[in-house]
Design a protein that fits this description.
By secondary structure, the chain is α/β, with parallel strands linked by helices. It has 2 domains: about 300 residues, nicotinate phosphoribosyltransferase (Alpha-Beta Barrel), CATH 3.20.140; about 140 residues, TIM Barrel (Alpha-Beta Barrel), CATH 3.20.20. About 35% of the residues lie in helices and about 20% in strands. It has 17 helices and 24 strands. The strands form 7 sheets. Strands 17-16-3-7-5-23 form a 6-stranded antiparallel β-sheet. Strands 9-8-15-14-13-12 form a 6-stranded parallel β-sheet. A 4-stranded mixed β-sheet has the order 22-18-19-24. The longest helix has about 30 residues. The chain is elongated, with a radius of gyration of 29 Å. Bound molecules: adenosine-5'-triphosphate, 1-O-pyrophosphono-5-O-phosphono-alpha-D-ribofuranose, nicotinic acid and magnesium ion (MG). Magnesium ion (MG) binds next to loops.
């Protein structure tokens, strides 16, 4: 059953395994202890944030919010789930707790969050969850689970897109290598959000409306032994006005023309006939969308001439071949060589546009290989990326945390020997301040009731923990970062935007960042700050909570 809020139906989470039990045991033990102490309805505020940008970069893409909202909108423990909690906790736990649990929902919970697909930075709350402490405590692990991987993959995808360059098409091919079904579905969704153009994952296409793309595998090529296997060789022209009765012969004629061509100067000798049969057969099946994997036997000696022969035969019948895929070898060299041949063929045989035939490359691609290809020069138009993007091979987890910042209107702080782990107390607001050139300059957190920064008014931005780091900013534009996404089922809240809009937000925000924050090597850290008032309060609370040591 789906929940209704603000007149909008909010379905449950995409993965039906996302239930109130998808949490750590300690959330239930704490919920019991809060209940036992009579504290369970105390109003608590938690911040969800991360401490360090992933992949050695200086930016992160926030993703996973929609799933969190779907989760809380439908949050209710079923009887069998309560029975299981009863079996899992100590037998000394009182029955009244289970009665309480059976009535728990998120009607008293408020969620403020940065919009999904936004570019975000360490320490700034991505999500602020307020509500009865026992209920909000139960949300900690599922929220982290839904946001950590989503944001990591979206960031990874955005980084791959950044290196590949805006003009390149990025295809996500990772389902077979993903961490299980949820990893695969999630990767497809969040790669698309981070700027990929399409996925090979059919289920993700159906569930999220992501464009589907694909080629064919080596198995298809090697399954053919000879052109004699092709029974139905007829192919009608694209305008359906004529029919070629023996497409395979037409292909073979074109292959000899290529072999004897003057401008190709005898580049091509014998090619592999079983590969030619596979290509011809694929073209008969998909004359409008003929794409050939050209590296099964030998890219330059066989795959490319065979592809060209089939593509030219299709051209005779009014079809335009879709392109080739390279899946091994030196992709810079092979793509450049293939392009040269396509250009020569365009000239020699007068086939307009043949020189621009799309070249797709795949095989263990990652940021580094894309960067290396760019440095060498290449002719690849589209990249198919699997393992590295979906498994986030370069970094296993983002490390988002969920920390208590206020209870019963009393600010709370968590101290640590490691200053990066000290939490920023209070229910806060956060703003992005934009400079003269239109770039975001700094994110600033303030106490909830402080006046907001104003355009044209100088404001002091302080590093939260380093006294000497501070700067005045006169913002040209101020954007409040967190919006209300849940205020109980009846409360006014932001609508959940379609995936395409989230993707566009992401691409647009990434495009408006100052380039030095985005570069791969030694990027400049983006500044995250607090107001002078919040700074003073953090340090007052810090001194208040930290015991004074005694030297002997
Ligand atoms: N010009 C290039 N510069 C840098 N890296 C490249 C270049 N061309 C390909 N690569 C990368 O080099 C690696 C080649 O891997 P490997 O040697 O295992 O593959 P292969 O032998 O070409 O193909 P196969 O998958 O059939 O084994 C891949 O990760 C690929 O992305
Ligand atoms: O390399 P990835 O980035 O993970 O991209 C997906 C890979 O999956 C496919 O083949 P598969 O890897 O199954 O077989 P292969 O390694 O023998 O090419 C495809 O040809 C790619 O190589
Ligand atoms: O369509 C493809 O080419 C594809 C799909 C998944 C994995 N590798 C390649
Ligand atoms: Mg491979």
């Amino acid at each position: 059953m789906a929940a209704i809020s603000n007149g909008q139906v909010i379905a449950g989470p995409t993965n039906p395994m996302v239930t109130p039990l998808l949490t750590d045991l300690y959330q239930f033990t704490m919920a019991y202890a809060y209940w036992k102490a009579g504290k369970h309805n105390e109003r608590a505020v938690f911040d969800l944030y991360f401490r360090k940008n992933p992949f050695g970069g200086e930016y992160t893409v926030f993703a996973g919010l929609e799933e969190c909202i779907k989760f809380i909108a439908n949050f209710k423990l079923a009887d069998d789930e309560i029975d299981f909690v009863r079996q899992s906790l100590s037998s000394s736990c009182e029955e009244g707790f289970y009665k309480y649990l059976s009535g728990v929902d998120c009607s008293e919970v408020e969620v403020y969050a940065i919009q999904e697909g936004s570019v975000v930075f360490p320490k700034v709350p991505l999500v602020r969850v307020e509500g009865p402490i026992a209920v909000v405590q139960l949300l900690e692990t599922p929220f982290l689970n839904l946001i950590n991987y989503a944001s990591l993959v979206a960031t990874n995808a955005a980084r791959h897109r950044f290196v590949a360059g805006e003009s390149k098409m990025l295809l996500e091919f990772g389902l077979r290598r993903a961490q299980g079904p949820d990893g695969g579905i999630g990767a497809s969704r969040y790669c698309y959000m981070g700027g990929f153009h399409a996925t090979s994952n059919v289920a993700a296409g159906k569930i999220f409306g992501i464009p589907l793309r694909g080629t064919h595998s080596h198995a298809f090529v090697s399954s053919f032994m000879s052109p004699d296997e092709i029974i139905d060789k007829s192919l009608h022209s694209s305008d359906k006005r004529s029919t070629c009765e023996d497409f395979v012969s037409l292909v073979q004629t074109w292959l000899s023309k290529i072999q004897w061509s003057n401008s190709l100067n005898g580049t091509f000798g014998e090619t592999n006939h079983s590969e030619l049969a596979a290509f011809a057969s694929y073209a008969l099946a998909f004359p409008d969308n003929f794409l050939a994997l050209v590296d099964t036997y030998d890219v330059m000696r066989s795959g490319i001439p065979n592809f060209c022969a089939v593509a030219l035969a299709l051209n005779d019948l009014g079809y335009k071949a879709a392109g080739i895929r390279l899946d091994s070898g030196d992709l810079a060299y092979l793509s450049s060589e293939a392009r040269k041949i396509f250009r020569i063929i365009e000239k020699e045989f007068g086939v307009t546009g043949f020189g621009k035939t799309v070249i797709t490359a795949s095989n263990d691609l990652n940021e580094e290989t894309l960067d290396a290809l760019n440095k060498q020069g290449h002719e690849v138009d589209a990249f198919g990326i699997g393992t590295h993007v979906v498994t986030c091979y370069a970094q296993a987890a983002l490390g988002c945390v969920f920390k208590l910042v206020e209870i019963n209107n009393q600010p709370r702080i968590k101290l640590s020997e490691d200053v990066t782990k000290v939490s920023i107390p209070c229910k806060k607001r956060s703003y992005r301040l934009f400079g003269k050139e239109g770039y975001p300059l700094v994110d600033i957190m303030t106490g909830e009731n402080e006046p907001p920064p104003k355009v044209g008014e100088r404001i002091l931005c302080r590093h939260p923990f380093n006294e000497s780091k501070r700067a005045y900013v006169v913002p040209q534009r101020v954007e409040e970062l967190m919006k209300c996404f849940w205020h109980g089922p009846g409360g006014v809240r932001e609508d959940l935007p379609p995936l395409k809009d989230i993707r566009e937000r992401c691409i647009s925000q990434l495009g408006k960042m100052r380039p030095d924050h985005m570069r791969r090597l030694n990027p400049t850290p983006y500044k995250v700050s607090v107001s002078a008032k919040l700074y003073d309060f953090i340090h007052f609370l810090w001194l208040n909570e930290a015991p004074v040591g005694e030297l002997q």
